[in-house]
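Researcher: Quick one. two chains, 604 residues in total.
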Amino acid sequence: MSLKIIETCVNCWACEPLCPNGAVIAAKPHFLIDAHKCGECLGDFEEPQCAAICPIEGAIIDALGNAINPAGSLTGIPPERWDAVRAEIAAR
Amino acid sequence: MFAENDVGLQTTEKTVAMAFPAAGGGCSAGSCGSSPAQMSALSDAIRAKVADHPCYSEDAHHYFARMHAAVAPACNIQCNYCNRKYDCANESRPGVVSEVLTPEQAVKKTLAVAAAIPQMSVLGIAGPGDPLANPQRTFATFRRLAEKAPDIKLCVSTNGLALPECVEELARHNIEHVTITINCVDPDIGAKIYPWIFWKNRRVRGRAAAAILIEQQQKGLEMLVARDILVKVNSVMIPGVNDEHLKEVSRIVKAKGAFLHNVMPLIAEAEHGTFYGLMGQRSPTAPELKNLQDACEGGMNMMRHCRQCRADAVGMLGEDRGGEFTLDKVEPMEIDHEAALARRLAFREQARAELKARRARAHAIPTGAQVISLHRPPRKPAGRAVLMAVATKGSNLVNEHFGYAREFLLYEATESGARMVGHRRTDKYCGGIETCGDGDSRIERIVRALDGCEVVLCARIGYEPWSRLEAAGIKPDAEHAMEPIEEAVMAVWREMLKAGKLQSAAPGERRA
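Model:
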């Protein structure tokens, strides 16, 4: 059982010092979680610490591939709004 | 100003002489931010502390440069005007950087900048996240730099959440200046600005989050003041959210001992990917910003020369020379640190002498308006205030061609003299007009940026923009090219007075 950081990570370092098991690796092009060390903070904290501070929606996923912080959950920006603006900008 | 290979080769005298004319390379206003009157009311101890800091003193920012080292990428809160995917090289706004540095790299870069730019007096850490959410990286940078360049002042800009627990360490590192961004003192307003904070190992949301943040900010402010650390408060003006409320914020932070209040306009564009940008929250207009700054000024020193720079900005406030000091350029530089220190000290001595002379002149020479008042019956107001925009490329002169100006300095002329009250950008926070523009022509953008101004002073101006400005009710003036700004502004004001244009309300007010 382990969490995973995916490519939308912006390498902001916020999660790295918080991990109780030292499972976060400051890798390039983006940070990674050592699956052997990660225990999803069970027994240590109420919330997995990396996901509790991560500012990027969707950057940390669970073993089933679900985002711990899904789109809209951190910024309050509805995903449809983002898509509409992206399309608008791309059309210029 | 210096080519890289010039570093370390020049004699002290030559360097200082070369550095000096360009000292106004950024803002060249004669009186912006805290006014000379406000400055002279300060204690000597405080004046000495801000004398070399471009972000804390109107005087200093004509002469001294600063840089921000982007060593602090992590943040412990989310603000609705911030997008954590900070990687646009074209943009100049807080929170944006091109490369995050390790403390070693930051110190190397700072020393390279301090060797090439003798005006360099301050290293600030302002992100791109929060410096105090990255305490190890932030304090390691300060510690190493203090060993190698003890003359450089250190400063941090923080959201305040982790401030109380860091005050002791800030004091230990001889940090004399701390900026706290305080947008509210009311958690209900805070809930509209901050969606969440990370607090005691949990993500806290909504009103509860704002309440904790506000408490920490106020506690941190009090602790800093108690240790004689100067505190500047930054506030982002968000129309309809905290604009009226900021007057109360200003009163409270002043009462608690903050030294300077800097009310900045919200920057919100959909392209930036921020909550406010995407959800259509508007930014304040320039007159709205000025009105709020004026309203806050009654109780507080207001900063008017802030350029809302990037978390990796380098140089004078009006310029960004970050591109000259990227890691790949800094790496091969050979630097003679002792010679660089000597150049900085020599520059500072000369700058201080110049500042002292300037202050003496300001006290000795009556302004043009005061001369006029001698010839007028007492108590009768000599004419109303006029807002004027000035195109300048430095040295406190009207010396920029209208078409080349990327920003205009704003002066308010009254019978008691000319005073800088702000600046207006015309390039919309982004270098790439072609890619980021909204389809407006440049002149339309400038006319909009100069809303509220009655006159534009510049060195030269073409026929077409001249007509467009006149049509918009703004009088172009190239008659005072190369004159000192305050003198030119007052000369125009006196001409308007003589022509009988200053007896009634401003044209904009009549229309309203």
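The CA atoms of residues 270 and 277 of chain B lie 4 Å apart.
Researcher: Thanks, that's what I needed.
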